[in-house]
Amino acid sequence: MIYKMLVLNIDGTLLNDNGRLNKVTKESIEFAVAKGIKVTLVTSRNFSSATRVAKELHLDTCLVTHQGAFVASDRDKPILVKRINEEVTHDLVRFLEAFHCQIKLVHERYTIANKKDLPSNLMGKFIIQTSNRFTYSETYVDSLVEKLIETPVSPPKIEIIFENNTDLNDAKKAIHQMFHEVNCIENDYNILEIVPQGISKLKGVLYLCDRLNIQREEVVMIGSGMDDLALIEWAGLGVAMGNASMALKRSADWITRSNNENGVSYMVKEHFRKQQPIEFLKKMNLI
C-alpha cells in the first residue's frame, strides 16, 4: 500500500513525557515530508498551541485542533470551525460550577478559566499533558458565569478538570441528557472535553482528506489516547504508541514503541523507508 498522509496526535505521541520533541522525532517527520507525505497534527489542544508544535516540525499543513472543531493552517482563515453557541456555553458553565472543577473555555485566540484549587498531583499531571511550553497564555477569573454575562463567548471547546472521576461521570451523564447541542469526550486525568455535536478528531480528518482527495486506505494514524480510537480504527494503517492503553492497542494494526522511546520515529522510518517519493510514483504512473 502507498501511503499519502500521516496523521499524528501530539501529547503522549509526538512529545516525550517532559513535553519536548526529540531530535530523532523531528528528523523522522522531515524524512516523511521529503517523500511527499502530507503530515498533519490532530489534537485536543487549541490551535495556537498546536501551531507551535507544527512550527518545530517545519509543517505548514492544516491542523485538526480543538478535538476537530477547528481545522486550519491560518488562525484567521479556518477551513472548518464549529462553536458552542453563547447561550449554551453560559448554561453549561452555570451547571458545571456546582462541581469542584476547573472550567476552561478554549477559544482559538484565548482561554478563559475559573480560579479553582485542585490537588497538586492532579494539576501536575494536567500541566504535563496540556500546559507545557507550547501552550498559550490563559486568563483566570473568580466567576466564569459573571464573566460570560459581561463578555459572551462561543468557544470551539470547553475543557473541565474534575477532582474525582465520580463527579466527571455524573456531569457527563447530566450533560448528555440536558444539552443535545454538544458532545462529551472523556480524556485522561479526569478531564472532560465538550465540543459541538457531531465534532470529533475523526470528523476533522475526514474533512481534510476530502479536500486533499486522500482515501482512507492511504492514511497512517499514530495515537496514544482513547480519543484517538476512532481514527486508529478508521485509518488504512492505525498505529498505537507503546504507552497507549490495552484497549487502544487491541484496535490498532501496528504497535510502536512508547513516546519516551521515540515510537513515532521508529514507526515512520520502518514503514516509509521503502516507499518511493510520491512525485516519483506519479511520474511512473503508479498512483
Tell me briefly what this model is:
The chain has helices at 10-14, 23-34, 47-56, 86-96, 120-130, 144-150, 165-178, 201-212, 229-234, 246-251, 263-272, 278-283, and strands at residues 5-8, 38-41, 63-65, 70-72, 80-81, 101-106, 111-114, 139-141, 157-162, 182-187, 191-196, 219-223, 237-240, 254-255. The protein has 287 residues and is an alpha/beta fold.
Describe this structure in words.
The protein is of the alpha/beta class and 287 residues long. It contains twelve helices and 14 strands. It has helices at 10-14, 23-34, 47-56, 86-96, 120-130, 144-150, 165-178, 201-212, 229-234, 246-251, 263-272, 278-283; strands spanning 5-8, 38-41, 63-65, 70-72, 80-81, 101-106, 111-114, 139-141, 157-162, 182-187, 191-196, 219-223, 237-240, 254-255. It has a six-stranded mixed beta sheet with strand order 8-7-6-9-11-10, covered by helices on one side. A five-stranded parallel beta sheet has the order 2-1-12-13-14. Helix 2 (23-34) packs parallel to helix 11 (263-272) and helix 4 runs antiparallel to helix 6. The model is unreliable at 121-135 (pLDDT under 50).
SSE topology sketch:
Blueprint: E1 5-8, H1 10-14, H2 23-34, E2 38-41, H3 47-56, E3 63-65, E4 70-72, E5 80-81, H4 86-96, E6 101-106, E7 111-114, H5 120-130, E8 139-141, H6 144-150, E9 157-162, H7 165-178, E10 182-187, E11 191-196, H8 201-212, E12 219-223, H9 229-234, E13 237-240, H10 246-251, E14 254-255, H11 263-272, H12 278-283
Parallel strand pairs: 1-2, 1-12, 7-8, 12-13, 13-14
Antiparallel strand pairs: 3-4, 4-5, 6-7, 6-9, 9-11, 10-11
Helix pairs in contact: 2-11, 4-6
